[in-house]
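wait is this the right file?? whatever heres the structure
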């Protein structure tokens, strides 16, 4: 199940139509790797997952691995591959924590969906999450429940099929848990959905540069934000959000994830040049 489009005062959304050429594989060095604003970076050139936090149980998941197939690497020699086999609740993830967290965090990644990717309908993708200092898994789980302003918040920028309305992988939107979220018709608090306007659907078999941002609100005010960019163009910008009621609740985790609720086929996504920063990062200039 999935939450409905929030009735919150959603901010204006800016979008320029995206071309079809896409982010071509690059041999240009990524400036983000040495940017002082970037506090986490992995282009997977170590050939392993050593930069990711070993608290994440998916290190032993065979669906998560570093690969060297040049057709599925954006730059360098290696990339991350996550596979979702046929079946219920398939896929995998890796995560990095940065305790005690920050008030504003940007996360950028390059990704490519396989040519035959089709999640059926429902999937989860990459997320920024927040919680109290030291509570690493504060924002993990909790599907169908609303944060209270003191415990957690999370948001993912992910594709949505809308039960076949959009071609796979789907239309990009924020899937957001926050204290002012609205319930569905059954009274469950599943993630509220914030789409771009006009709708942006991704294509399979090409590289995208995707970036998302969360800015925490001032406790007592609804002045928080979230935004996303695709290939350097702003796709969604939501303002007027209340993420927290206490100062110590901050963004403290970024998770790369492919979660498929009921995968009808073997699905794969490749990730490369992942950066987490205090400021906007943008695409690699070619």
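ok assuming it is, sequence goes like this
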């Amino acid at each position: 199940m999935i939450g409905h489009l929030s009735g919150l005062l959603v901010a204006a959304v800016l979008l320029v139509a995206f071309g079809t050429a896409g982010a071509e594989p690059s041999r240009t060095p990524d400036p983000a790797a040495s940017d002082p604003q970037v506090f986490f970076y992995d282009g997977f050139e170590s050939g392993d997952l050593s930069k990711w936090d070993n608290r994440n149980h998916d290190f032993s998941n065979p669906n998560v691995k570093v690969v060297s197939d040049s057709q599925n690497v954006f730059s360098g020699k290696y990339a991350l591959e996550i596979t979702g086999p046929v079946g219920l609740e398939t896929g995998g993830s890796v995560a990095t924590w940065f305790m005690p967290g920050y008030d504003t965090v940007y996360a950028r990644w390059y990704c490519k969906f396989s040519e035959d990717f089709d999640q059926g309908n429902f999937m989860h993708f990459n997320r920024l999450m927040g919680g109290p200092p030291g509570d690493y898994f504060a924002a993990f789980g909790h599907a169908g429940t609303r944060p209270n302003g003191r415990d957690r918040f999370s948001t993912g920028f992910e594709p949505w099929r809308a039960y076949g309305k959009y071609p796979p992988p789907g239309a990009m939107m924020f899937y957001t848990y926050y204290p002012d979220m609205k319930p569905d018709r059954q009274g469950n608090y599943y993630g509220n959905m914030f789409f771009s306007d006009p709708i942006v659907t991704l294509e399979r078999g090409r590289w995208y540069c995707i970036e998302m941002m969360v800015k925490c609100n001032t406790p007592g005010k609804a002045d928080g934000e979230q935004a996303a960019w695709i290939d350097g163009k702003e796709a969604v910008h939501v303002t007027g959000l209340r993420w927290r009621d206490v100062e110590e609740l901050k963004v403290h985790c970024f998770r790369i994830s492919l979660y498929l609720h009921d995968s009808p086929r073997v699905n794969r996504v490749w990730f490369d040049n992942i950066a987490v920063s205090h400021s906007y990062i943008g695409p690699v200039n070619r």
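Residues 175 and 193 are 5 Å apart (CA to CA). so i think its the right one actually
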